[in-house]
Amino acid sequence: MDENINVNKQKMTKPKFPTFKGKPLIEIPEFIPHINFLKGEFGKAFIKEYKGRVKTDYKGNTYLNILRYEDGIVKGSNPFAVVLANQILKEENLRTATQADLEKTLRIGWNLRETHEDTGLVLRSGEDDYFRNTPIAKDLGSQLKTRGIKFSPKNPIMIPLTGFDLINSYDDYGLTFRLREDAEIISSPQLAHKNNNKTFNETNDKGLPIFNKDGNRNLYTRDSGLSRLCLTGGFVLYSDSEKLDSSSNRGRVVAVSAKGTSPEKLKTDLMDKIYFEYQAQLKKLNTRKAEAEKAAIKIMDRKC
C-alpha cells in the first residue's frame, strides 16, 4: 500500500525545468532522441539549480563555478561541471552527451565549429606520474583495478562522463570522480600516444577515430596519466591535457533526451507495428481468398 502511495506521489511531482527542446539525433521518425545545448528558459532554470547544488553540496567549489547563463545559453565546460550537470539532468530524464552522440550530430550536420565539449576521461597510467591530477588518476585507477579492468599507455581506458558521480575530496581540486555501477568502460587503443596527430574522417560506434591518412580531422593524445576527452571546433579530438579545471567561453554542456526510447518501449512499439502490419496483410489475403473462392464457385456452377 505504502509503495503505491509513493509511486503515485512521484507521478504527480512536476518537473523542475521547462520542457527540453532539441534537435533530432537519429533519423528514425518513430523514435527520435533529441540533443541540444542548454539554452533558453530551460538553460536559465538549469543554471539556477546548478549554482544552488555547487553552493550547498560542493561548498562553492571554484572549479565548478565555471558555468554561466549568458546570451541565452549556458556557457563553460570542464569534466567536473559536466558530471554535476549530468547528475542534475538525470532527474529530468536527460543526460549529457557522449562522444558517440556528438559524432552523430556531426554526421547529420549540426554545427559545432565554434564550441568545445567535454565528453570523457582517458586513463593510461595513474601511479607513477606527477601531474596535478595524479591523486584523481590513482583513485580512478584503483576503482578500475577493483573491477578487474587493466589499462596501460598502449591500451588506455576511456570512460564517458555519464559514467561518474562527483564527490568532494581533499586533493588540489577538492573533487574526485566515483565510477557508477552502470559506467561504460571502453578499451581505447586509438588514444595511445603513438596515434598523436593522426588524421581521420569517421569514428566508430563509441565515437573513437577510424584513422585515415587523407582525413581532415586530427587527434591529439598524450603518453601517460589521466586526461580529459573533448571535441573542439567540431573537428579536433583532444585527449592530451591533464588540466581538468580549465574552461572557456566556447565551452558548452550538451544534453540528450531519450525519453520514450528505452529498449523495452522500442521492443513493444516494434512488435505492435509488426502485429498491425501482419493484420493488414492478413486482411488483404483473406479478401483475395474470398474473391477467388467466389469466382471458383461461379465457374463450377456454369459447368453444372
Describe the fold and architecture:
β3 and β4 form a beta hairpin. It is built from six helices and 16 strands. The chain has an eight-stranded mixed sheet. The chain has two domains: 16-261, no CATH class; 263-304. It has 304 residues and is an alpha+beta fold. Helix content is 34%, strand content 22%.
Largest sheet: 8 strands, mixed
Class derived from helix and strand content: alpha+beta
How confident overall, as mean pLDDT? 86
Helix content: 25-40%
What is the total number of structural domains?
2
Order of the strands making up the biggest sheet: 10-7-6-14-15-13-11-12
Strand content: 15-25%
Terminal CA distance reads: 73 Å
Radius of gyration: 25 Å
What keyword list fits this structure?
single chain; 304 residues; alpha+beta; 2 domains; eight-stranded mixed beta sheet; 6 helices; 22% strand; elongated
Brief account:
With 304 residues, the protein is α+β, with helices and mostly antiparallel strands. It has six helices and 16 strands.
Topology:
Layout (H helix, E strand, L loop, with lengths): L1 H11 L10 E2 L9 E4 L2 H18 L10 E3 L2 E3 L3 H12 L3 E3 L2 H9 L8 E8 L10 H13 L10 E4 L3 E5 L6 E5 L6 E2 L11 E5 L5 E3 L5 E5 L4 E7 L3 E4 L14 E4 L5 H41 L1
Parallel strand pairs: 13-15
Antiparallel strand pairs: 1-2, 2-16, 3-4, 5-16, 6-7, 6-14, 7-10, 8-9, 11-12, 11-13, 14-15
